[in-house]
Amino acid sequence: MKLLRYGSPGREKPGLLDRDDTIRDLRATGADVVLFRWADISTRLPGGRVIGPRVRLMNDAVITTAERHGARVVDLWGDPAFANTRMWSIDRLHLSSFGHRRVAARVLAALGVPAEESWLAAVPPPERLSWTRARAAPIGERARGRVPRAFVSIECVGEQQ
Question: How much of the chain is in helix, strand and coil states, percent to nearest 5?
Fold first, then answer.
C-alpha cells in the first residue's frame, strides 16, 4: 500500500492537478491509494475566508482525481466530528490524539479493515473557557513543554527596571 497526501492548503495552485499523473501511475501498479478531503479548518484559523475556498478547491480536485483513477477517499470535510475543537491540537491546525485516532479509523474503513470502535466514539464537547483561561492555557502548555515556543508570546507592559 502506498499512502499519498496532497499538500497543505494554499499550495494547490498551479501544481495540484499535476499529481493526477502520480495517482494514475500508482493505481496502474495495483496499489491502493488513499486520498483525503481536508476537514474545514477555516472556522478555527485566522484568515479563514481566504483558506476556506482554497480547501474546497483542493477537496474538489481530490474527488475528481479519485474518481478518475479509482483511488479511495477519506472524507474529513464531511465528518461533523472535526468541528469539535478537541479534535485539534492547541495550534488549531494539527490533529489531537482524538483527531488522529478518528482519521486512522476512517483510513482503515476506506481500506475495508475494521478499526477499534472507540476510535470513532464521540469526543466530549469542548470546554467553555473564560477569555483569560483560554489565553493562559497556551502559556501553561508551554511551561509543560507541550507547545512550540512559536505559539506563545508574552508581552510585558509597564515600566521596565
Answer: 45, 10, 45
